[in-house]
Batch of 4 targets.
Target 1
Amino acid sequence: MRFNEQHRAIRDTTARFIDEEINPRTKEWEDAGIFPAHELFAKLGELGLLGICKPVEYGGMGLDYSYQMVFAEELGRIQCGGVGMAIGVQTDMATPALAKFGSDELRREFLAPAISGEAVCSIAVSEPGAGSDVAAIRTAARKDGDDYVIDGSKMWITNSTQADFLCLLANTSDGKAHFNKSLIIVPTRTPGVSFSPRLDKLGMRSSDTAQVFLDGVRVPQRHRIGDEGSGFVYQMLQFQEERIFAAISGIKSLEACVSQTIEYTRSRQAFGQSILDNQVVHFRLAELQTEIEALRALCYGAVEAYIHGEDVTLKASMAKLKIGRLSREVTDACLQYWGGMGFMWDNPVSRAWRDTRLASIGGGADEVMLSIICKLMDILPRRKKGEKP
């Protein structure tokens, strides 16, 4: 991947913003269990960072995804996982399908304010009984005149208690599970939309997450993104950007764990020498940094293919699998070298250990990634004739 001056400018602007506007407040936001999304997103919008690869006519920069990748990579500098994840929901999870397939009217009404930071948005797909199994969702939108009337609930929805609108996946017919779904924009102030109290999570503490309830929610059919029945396909396409984002945005967080562990173990003495002087420690840290760099190369390769129009399902799934597995490996190994200090709640490595555990669950669990990879490698078990999937 070759970077030009504009790539470097986006990287520098993002890094400066994080150092000045986010990291000084992460402790406050972690303790509060929420950060001020409207305030922060408005500032990001002023810098143009919420619409890097979105269409110019709606306020975006109109650049290719390599520029978004640079932005996502720098988000790994944030000293907690929740804020970067929330930003990624706005840019890479709730708006890609709207930007690509939404009507001009819908994009002007919802995409433009999401790019400017005036509106906060959420992606509402998962349900209490349907996480990685997207086809199993039960939320339904029935037609009534020119409207949809929506009933159901969504679970683990990031940004939800501050969101102005949801990009919601719902069943819009009784057809086959992969062809009966549509993505619909639902303003959160619509009558019938309500939220649970914020969920008490293991990690990502500064990100507000809640269950969303939809009881007779009426929205115009013009709020549907693209063709009716194409929602599952659109969501699978959104997952490609989400999974690349998840992988690339985790890299600098893992590098920070390694560098902080080097600094700590160099200064910590035990048995007459620094912890770092033990070969088992410095060899392990060197191995972990090598793995991180290999993941970066995989992500860069996936983005290079993506911006040239190639199908990156395989590489995106591999990168998503790897960030989940490697996050557990890096944070666990580094925490061990901190000893008792690693078991303290406010330790940066223990925070990363808690936050990054989500990488193997959200956006498709590791097991789903492995199934996709196996399918594309054509190594899934052959089904017998007449056997149901």
Target 2
Amino acid sequence: MSDLTVGDFLMEVQKVATASPRTLATYGSKFRRIVADIANIKPTSDKQKHDYFNGGSDAWRTKVDSVRLARITPERVTKWKKQYLTRASADPRDQIAKKRSVNSVIRNAKALFSQRNLSQLGHLELPTPLPFEKVAFEAEGSYRYRSLCDPKQILAQAWKELHEASPDEETPKFKGKPLPYDSPYRLQLAQERSASKHEAFKILLLALSVGLRRNEIDKLQWSQFRWAERVIIIETTDCFEPKADSAGDMPVDDEILAFFRERFSESESRFVIAGSEPKPDSSYQHYRAYKHERTLLKWLRGKGIACHNPIHALRKEYGTLVCQEAGIYVASRLLRHSDIRITSQHYVDQKERVVSGLGGTFSAIASTTHQGKTEDDAAA
């Protein structure tokens, strides 16, 4: 039996894999999660697993990495999956959510054992069978998008409440209580809050009217605007790499292009959205404009867009609008999907409700029946 440990395997994969460090870190995290549960390795406290400053995380990871890879069999992974699903409540929505979640964990962990990686690891004595061999995914139900807002209404509200936000209208708080008017920090905090709302409006506009993803917006640079061509170029830059097959030209409405051109003339940064410096080599998903994105997330949830990722919901609204205007093939191309089925299953909502047309006939029948009963009652 192979003595190869989980840690040794992950180290060897890291040497040959072409995925980014952040993606590999995600894959490794999901696999360690499965291994820890199967080997019954639990943190000494709820905080230990995520204690990156005092060594708690390292101690937990060392235990997980010492587990022999041969212990992680398909049978044990399947058992782990079933136990995970038992955590769901009787609510069908929670059951679907758990199925999607467990599939995501398995899908990420299984990517470590891709055929490309394995072809480069011939020098290792890998166990047979491998951990995810013939492990089935759960049926997840429909991913069909249901619209959560009226794009025109949300844009109008965002213009008034985000773009036109003024420090005079802000009420900064400290520990839940409004700061006194004579506080030296009041004006500063009020200015920061209104400025964050202005940035949040730009994020909303790029997601809703151009269909950009959150990370594309976060790392978007002014140099990616082609003013004469009226497009935004999604391309590899010094701090951003598009998802597979997602590079391309994104057409922009003339009026929205004019809005950003004015912002460009006022900007002193190379980035469209204000924020910190990017961290392209980080092993986690770093958002340089997180503060302003959080402002937008809070605002959107306050408008009833209470899904897991409200900013991505704006992109789905964009896809729906394009589909209604030009059809699903154009929507799929502009959303930069590799497969039109993704567009159909995950993004497009049919807002124009097509009905049978029998309403008039039904009304006439019901009216006649009601009239007949009335006459019968009068005769009686």
Target 3
Amino acid sequence: MTIVTKIDIISGFLGAGKTTLIKKLLSEAFQSEKVVLIENEFGEIGIDGGFLKEAGVEITEMNSGCICCSLVGDFGTALEKVINDYHPDRVIIEPSGVGKLSDVIRAVEGVGEKIDIILNSYTAVVDGQKCKMYMKNFGEFFNNQVEHAKTIILSRTQKMSDDKLKECLAMLKEHNPKATIVTTSWDDINGMKILNAMEKENDFVLKLLEEEHEHHHHHDHEEHEHHQDHGDDCTCGCHDHEEHHHHDHEEHEHHHDHDHGPDCTCGCHDHDHDHHHADDVFMSWGCEDARKYDRAQMQMTLDMLSHSDEYGIILRAKGMVPDTEGGWIYFDLVPGEVELRDGEPDITGRLCVIGSELNEAKLAELFGVN
């Protein structure tokens, strides 16, 4: 009997909580299954794999950029190899935080023509507290994940007021009225209930696959004109961070009133893409570092990174380093929020910072890296 492997795509913008959700699902919903995780980190230094090794999950890390742009070939090979070598019941794909969910779905569809897999779920994890900010400043990438998700799982809702949660839901439903949205705090809900929401069947899934297929094979001029509408749902990047401080209507018209000639940089010539590649907008800085770090000093360093703009626009920092007092410090940073915790020793210390307009020299100086 042939095993048909389920494929679950768990997307989410930088720092949304994808890895935390996957760990919860592994411990509460997938205990009896053989699961393989394929990660696609943005940046040269892979970090999250270390967080998941303790769960006994096979991890294939691909750190060369966004899954759709530079890894379509590698991704297909990796997925085929995983299926053929491990014969898993389920493969979880965790795309880069700046990956476009539509592209990941398309890549999986391509592999599905060769091996026995079923697209089981496509989920977007959304940090409820930062939904408005990311939608405004990084809409091209953030909105794509929201719009193509079958299920949207909100994180950090326990920290939100009822009004803020209501506002967040309204924005999400505007972009995706048919998705199932999970709003309950993860501490109050079992992973199996979350999985049930992810696997909930609806017509939206079939419609989405049909639309993706049509888009992929019939990307004509008329469709391109539709995408260049520059309305509230525009994904050309006109709402990106580079303009959000001084972005009035006049500037908007000036910036986008062009004829899409050969020198156009809006991304209209990118292969099967809506506009920009992640590499055009986001940067990463990271290193392997064997030095021991003082916990209090690391806290100060991360606080400075979180609240100062001299290092660039910081969207995510994470890492694992040896502690001067023994043990290991694992850290996570998203805008306005820093977490340090104890973790298992790894083969060496690693640091990774993701954002835009990063000042690499300043970052190296901040962390004391030569």
Target 4
Amino acid sequence: MSRDPASFRTRPVPPSAEASARKAGYRTGVAIDAEGPLAGERCVDVRSTGIAGANHYFTPHNPPYYVSVPGSIPGLYLRRSVAAKLKDVNARLAPMGMELFLFDAWRPQAVQRYFHDVWFPAWLQARRPELEGQALVDEVEHYWAAPSAGASSPSPHSTGGAVDLTLMFSETHQPLFMGGMFDDVTEDAWTDAFERKPIVSMSDAEAQSNRRLLYWVMSEAGFANNPTEWWHFSYGDQLWARLGGHPAALYGGCNPTGNPEA
């Protein structure tokens, strides 16, 4: 463990292209330990544990959508072990006057279907009309996982182990500058985007440093980063298992709302 997490600001993140290649096929090639000690672990709304956040999809103040997404919920549910790890991250960040802020956690399948099947394909085709068929699906799935497909292939956010987040200053609640908005769907969203481009401004340098800090402080706590999304981290799901070289995922799908339609 690094003595001073501020040192993470100078430590480059690994190449996203390499991690992206490793994650290929993770939902069909990684088993879930359905009998393991954490398989049935309950979820908790992380705000009840002192972690800050607001569900980005539920509020209409959520660029680039500006509408409460169909099927979204106000809660930010995660498995208890995952929430505890986030509290540990906050403890590491506290001497720097920083903490985590969550955009999303457990996600209803209605939200996953909306973005995977409707919103993002339409956004892409309006800008790249040559994309169609499998090429369109492949591009969509760089950024939006397909909805859950049975017990052996849950989408990451349906497991209670995946979370979207950023850093903010604890006193002012001002978010740190990351060089791109949450849910951006271009290579600017790749975690290593500011490792691959010339750093020609203070804004570039700040974004590079902040992405590094977020990546390494979360990695130190045992989370895996989705390399095409600087904000997405997971613990215990199939993506975590594939990227971390673990023999199996700890969590399958879950439904903390009790709503069978979620």
